[in-house]
């Protein structure tokens, strides 16, 4: 099987919104978009990685637990661009509850 026959998988991560990013001079694909800083988390709410930049598509805010697609094709399709853009991560959902033995309540201060 050659390397081009594999389908690309969309990487989904749980993350916590830790801040926002403001830019007055930016690429066209970021115009009129809210850009947030997110940090991956484990189901128990502990941080699991480094801060990343993500475009918000659902109205998330600071400290929200969110679901992030961190693969550019998902962002391109959701934002309905007609060609590939320099945009990798997009927030797809605000998480209300995680059903897992180690899970904390997603949108509380149990961090």
Description:
This protein has 111 residues and is mainly beta. It has one domain (10-94): Beta Barrel (OB fold (Dihydrolipoamide Acetyltransferase, E2P)), CATH 2.40.50. The protein has 1 helix and 5 strands. The N and C termini lie far apart (45 Å).
Short description:
This protein is mostly beta strands and 111 residues long.
How many domains?
1
Rounded Rg: 15 Å
- Number of beta-strand segments: 5
Highest-level CATH class: Mainly Beta
Q: Going across the major beta sheet, what is the strand order?
A: 1-2-3-5-4
Key features of this structure:
111 residues, mainly beta, OB fold (Dihydrolipoamide Acetyltransferase, E2P), 5-stranded mixed barrel, 1 helix, 5 strands, 6% helix, 31% strand
Please specify the SSE layout and strand pairing.
Layout: E1 12-21, E2 34-40, E3 52-56, E4 65-70, H1 72-78, E5 89-94
Parallel strand pairs: 3-5
Antiparallel strand pairs: 1-2, 1-4, 2-3, 4-5
